[in-house]
Amino acid sequence: MKEYSVRELVFTALFIALVYVFTWLVKIQLPFAPNGGLIHLGNVPFFIACIFFSKRVGMLSGALGMGLFDLTSGWVAWSPMTVISALIMGYIMATLNTRDFRLSRYVLAAVLVTVVKVLTYYIGEAIMFKSLLVPMANIPGNVLQITVSAIIVGVLIPPMSRILKDVKL
């Protein structure tokens, strides 16, 4: 396993903080999902880290940024689901897009990431609530959350590609 460079450590810490802040500042509690259902924009810096940096930076920024948000914001029971889903989502997004971005792969990654998020939270909440029906209330919010973030990131990729083209870890 490759050792961390100071630069990679700094970018990882920066993106963990950005994911946390974007999750904390821009969030909407879904009225039809009282036991969960939070739409946030933490996936925007998470996806950017996956696309422009490395798998490790992306995966850790999502897992730790959103996991810490859950632990510090009253969503403690959801933290394991968040960490697991973010690690898998980050792996997928980074594997398909890091340093060699193509729109078709980005769309595929966004679809796969949505499936992972929905399944991870559905399974976790089914166990948590001992019900196969209750977790269904959060599916629309999870799909909307990833879709909105994916669109925002899709718009940001071209200008960011020009800005970050020379940044190497």
TrEMBL record:
Organism encoding this protein: Aedoeadaptatus acetigenes
Membrane as UniProt keyword: yes
PANTHER family to which the protein is assigned, alphabetical: UPF0397 PROTEIN BC_2624-RELATED, UPF0397 PROTEIN SPR0429
Record keywords, A-Z: Membrane, Transmembrane, Transmembrane helix
Residue spans crossing the bilayer: 6-26, 38-55, 75-94, 106-123, 143-164
Organism classification: Bacteria, Bacillati, Bacillota, Tissierellia, Tissierellales
Family annotation (Pfam families): ECF-ribofla_trS (PF07155)
Protein name in the entry: ECF transporter S component
The keyword Transmembrane helix appears for this protein: yes
